[in-house]
């Protein structure tokens, strides 16, 4: 430690021109550490005097490369990668075929679905009948019916064939006929769906021995 301090004092004196030692100069030429200290001292002096370059060319990359050469090799990444499973080596789950998956459904579930469809159709029919079953005489449609003039210009009363009751009755009958058509169409569609499901179930039952 004392020798290092003495060498630094000699370098400082040599830089200031107070000491000219040939042995120290030869040591600077042969010792890399002494040359680095000499360079650092000059850089410190330039900075203190305000003469340092605006963009000092420090070779940081070379210093980092030299430090990495002495860095020991770490194996922690290799130990963690040993626990990682490749995607190709992972077990693959097979997906069932549509026909096989359909056969796995229990029979009671299929029957429950048919009952639910029937209940929905019945509910639609009941609501439709309640909605279109008749016309309210106090409804806006009835209030908007025109009032016919029953007294002619001649001054004598004549029978009128078109009355409010006849118009309301014809409108109600038209609504009922339209509602019946809709109900029949829904029932036909429901029967068609039942036949399609029944045929599909029978076809799956015939194909079951062949697939298995």
Automatic annotation (TrEMBL):
CDD domains: RseA_N (cd16328)
InterPro entries for the chain: Anti-sigma-E_RseA-like, Anti-sigma_E_RseA_C, Anti-sigma_E_RseA_N, Anti-sigma_E_RseA_N_sf, RseA
One Pfam family in the UniProt entry: RseA_N
Span of domain Anti sigma-E protein RseA C-terminal: 144-195
N-terminal signal peptide: none
Region (Disordered): 159-179
Cellular localisation: Cell inner membrane; Cell membrane
This protein's UniProt keywords: Cell inner membrane, Cell membrane, Membrane, Transmembrane, Transmembrane helix
Record text on subunit structure and interactions: Interacts 1:1 with ECF RNA polymerase sigma-E (RpoE); this inhibits the interaction of sigma-E with the RNA polymerase catalytic core and leads to a decreased expression of sigma-E-regulated genes. Interacts with RseB.
Residue ranges occupied by any Anti sigma-E protein RseA N-terminal domain in the UniProt entry: 5-102
UniProt GO molecular function: sigma factor antagonist activity
Protein name per its UniProtKB record: Anti-sigma-E factor RseA
Assigned protein family: Belongs to the RseA family.
Gene3D superfamilies named in the record: 1.20.5.3960, Anti sigma-E protein RseA, N-terminal domain
Chief place of localization: membrane
Membrane-protein topology: Single-pass membrane protein
GO cellular component, one term: plasma membrane
Record function comment: An anti-sigma factor for extracytoplasmic function (ECF) sigma factor sigma-E (RpoE). ECF sigma factors are held in an inactive form by an anti-sigma factor until released by regulated intramembrane proteolysis (RIP). RIP occurs when an extracytoplasmic signal triggers a concerted proteolytic cascade to transmit information and elicit cellular responses.
């Amino acid at each position: 430690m004392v020798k290092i301090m003495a060498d630094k004092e000699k370098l400082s004196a040599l830089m200031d021109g107070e000491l000219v030692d040939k042995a120290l100069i030869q040591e600077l030429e042969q010792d890399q550490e002494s040359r680095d200290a000499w360079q650092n001292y000059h850089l410190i002096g330039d900075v203190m005097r305000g003469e340092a370059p605006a963009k000092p060319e420090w070779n940081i990359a070379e210093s980092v490369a030299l430090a990495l050469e002495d860095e020991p090799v770490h194996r922690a990444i290799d130990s963690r990668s040993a626990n990682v499973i490749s995607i190709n080596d992972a077990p693959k789950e097979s997906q069932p075929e549509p026909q096989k998956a359909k056969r796995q459904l229990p029979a009671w579930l299929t029957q429950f679905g048919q009952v639910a469809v029937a209940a929905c159709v019945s509910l639609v029919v009941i609501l439709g009948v309640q909605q279109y079953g008749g016309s309210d005489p106090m409804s806006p449609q009835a209030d908007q019916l025109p009032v016919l003039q029953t007294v002619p210009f001649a001054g004598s009363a004549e029978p009128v064939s078109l009355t409010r009751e006849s118009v309301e009755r014809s409108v109600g009958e038209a609504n009922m006929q339209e509602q019946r058509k809709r109900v029949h169409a829904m029932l036909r569609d429901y029967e068609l769906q039942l036949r399609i499901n029944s045929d599909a179930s029978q076809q799956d039952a015939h194909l079951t021995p062949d697939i298995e």
